[in-house]
C-alpha cells in the first residue's frame, strides 16, 4: 500500500480479554464501522449484574472496555441489531426478566425501551432467550419459561428530527410448548421474516409461521423427552438446524425436510455442550463448545454419512459456556470461559 513504509505487524491468532466477573452472554457487533466490538454480560448470582462493551484496539492489540452499564439479573442473551449497513441507530438488546433495547453511545449506553408482556400482574416470567430478525430488524422474538413465545415489533421514530425514540409493541404471543421454552430462532426460509423455531423443556423442536399461527410443525422430539436448551439455524441452507439437550455431550443436526430423524450427531465432546455456532459464510461448517474446555469446528458436508471427527479443535483455559462466530468477519470466533473472552482466528 502506498504511504506505508514499515511492514504492518502480523496480526495475532488469539486475543484475550479478562472481565471483572464471570462472562455468560456475548455477541459480536455487526456494524461495518465497529469491526472488533463485542458486548459481554456478567453472571453474578444476585440482582446487580453488568453489561460491558469491549473493542479491540488494533494498534495496541488489546481489548479495552468502552463502557459498562448495570443490568438487573444476568442477561440470558445479548444481541446487537443485525444492521450490516449501519442504517439503524446503534442498538443492542438484552433478555433477562424483560426484553430491553439499549442505545449505545460513545461514552454511555442508555435504555431506550423495556418490553414487558405481563401488563396485568406483578408476576414476571423470565425470558430464556430471544432472536432479532435479520431480514426485518424491526422484529424480535422472545422465549419464556411461561411456555410462550412473543413476537415484538420495534419502531425507531424520528423525534425533533435528531433523536430516534425506540418503542415496541406485541405483534403476537403464542403458547409454543407444553413446558418452558428455552430458545427461539428465526429461519431464513420463505423470505426470512415469518418462520421461526423454538425448543423447550418438553424435548421438542417446533416450527412456526407468523402467517399461519393456528398450527405448528414438530421437527424433532427427544425420545426420552429430555429438555432441549439451544437451537441454531444454518446460515446458508435454511433446511438445516442444530440443537442440543440438557447435559448432553452431543449436538444433533436436523433437516426440516426429514422431521424427527437427526441427519447427524456430533459427539466428540467429553462433557456437556453449551454453545453452537454455524459458520456465517459456509453451509457445511459448525462450531460447538462445552464443559470439556473444547471448541470444535466440524465439516458436515458428507451428511448423512457419519461425521467422526472435527477438523479443528481448540482447548481453552476453562469450561466454555458461549461461542459466537462473527457474521461480518467469518474468520473470527469468540468464546468465553470463567471471566475470560477470547477471539480465535480460524
TrEMBL record:
WD repeats: 266-308
Pfam family, one: WD40
Cell location: Cytoplasm; Nucleus
Domain of life: Eukaryota
A GO term from the CC aspect: nucleus
Pathway annotation: Protein modification; protein ubiquitination
Coiled-coil segments on the chain, per record: none
Broad class of where this protein is predominantly found: cytoplasm
InterPro entries attached to this UniProt entry: DCAF7-like, WD40/YVTN_repeat-like_dom_sf, WD40_repeat_CS, WD40_repeat_dom_sf, WD40_rpt
PROSITE patterns named in the record: WD_REPEATS_1 (PS00678), WD_REPEATS_2 (PS50082)
Keywords: Cytoplasm, Developmental protein, Nucleus, Repeat, Ubl conjugation pathway, WD repeat
Protein family: Belongs to the WD repeat DCAF7 family.
Name of the protein: DDB1- and CUL4-associated factor 7
Species annotation: Littorina saxatilis
